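Q: What residues go here?
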């Protein structure tokens, strides 16, 4: 795979983003994966998951979206897409564990087999992690293990890196430290500010998250929950 020699010489119209593992033949699941989604913001990655299911790429049923912000765009998208959505406001819970107990109860009631954090802006605890061991994944806007935590895009710009991107990883107690499932690399241009780089990374997130969910699904179903086809 070719390396970037000098991204200052790469023009935006010559974009060189790439995904690893490369997009290929999508695994098929019978019955479809039963997915719960968590989101706090606009919900664009939630909708990317939905589109992947309706376009026949991702064999999954989005059983429930949970949001923690009553005014977030994800809630509006769920209504438009007719996906069940539940508000669990973190402000009404005195501890992170209390919030996560509520999340677990809601996902279990929806018969969810795995959970995708698609822009969830709260740190989760073992209460949720242990309820879905190996079946809780998160999307993060950096090439992990670089730039964990808040403002990953700002961290990358401050560090002067030439390549940034996004990762989907398994969730564990240490923030942004779980095993990486897939990543998308995005060149950083000399003219980039946070908004420009964030937009370019987000466009790759929309491609990466459904693919990484399918790859994770192979492991989930290999554990004996159901059959996987070809």
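A:
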């Amino acid at each position: 795979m070719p390396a970037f020699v000098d991204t200052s010489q790469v023009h935006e119209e010559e974009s060189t983003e790439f995904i690893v593992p490369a997009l290929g033949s999508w695994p098929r699941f019978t019955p479809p994966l039963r997915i719960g989604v968590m989101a706090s913001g606009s919900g664009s990655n939630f909708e990317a998951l939905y589109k992947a299911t309706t376009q026949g790429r991702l064999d999954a049923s989005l059983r429930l979206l949970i949001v923690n912000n009553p005014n977030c765009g994800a809630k509006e998208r769920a209504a438009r897409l007719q996906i069940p959505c539940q508000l669990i406001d973190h402000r009404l819970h005195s501890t992170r564990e209390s919030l996560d107990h509520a999340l677990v109860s809601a996902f279990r009631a929806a018969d969810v087999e795995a959970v995708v954090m698609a822009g969830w802006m709260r740190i989760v605890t073992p209460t949720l992690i242990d309820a879905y061991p190996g079946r809780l994944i998160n999307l993060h806007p950096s090439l992990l293990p670089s730039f964990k935590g808040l403002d990953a895009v700002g961290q990358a710009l401050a560090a002067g890196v030439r390549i940034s991107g996004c990762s989907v990883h398994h969730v564990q107690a240490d923030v942004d430290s779980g095993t990486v499932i897939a990543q998308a690399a995005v060149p950083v241009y000399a003219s980039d500010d946070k908004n420009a780089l964030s937009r370019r990374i987000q466009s790759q997130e929309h491609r990466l998250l459904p693919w990484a969910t399918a790859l994770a699904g192979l492991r989930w179903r290999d554990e004996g929950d159901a059959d996987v086809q070809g």
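A: Context that may help when evaluating the design: The CA atoms of residues 94 and 204 lie 36 Å apart. The chain has a mean pLDDT of 91.
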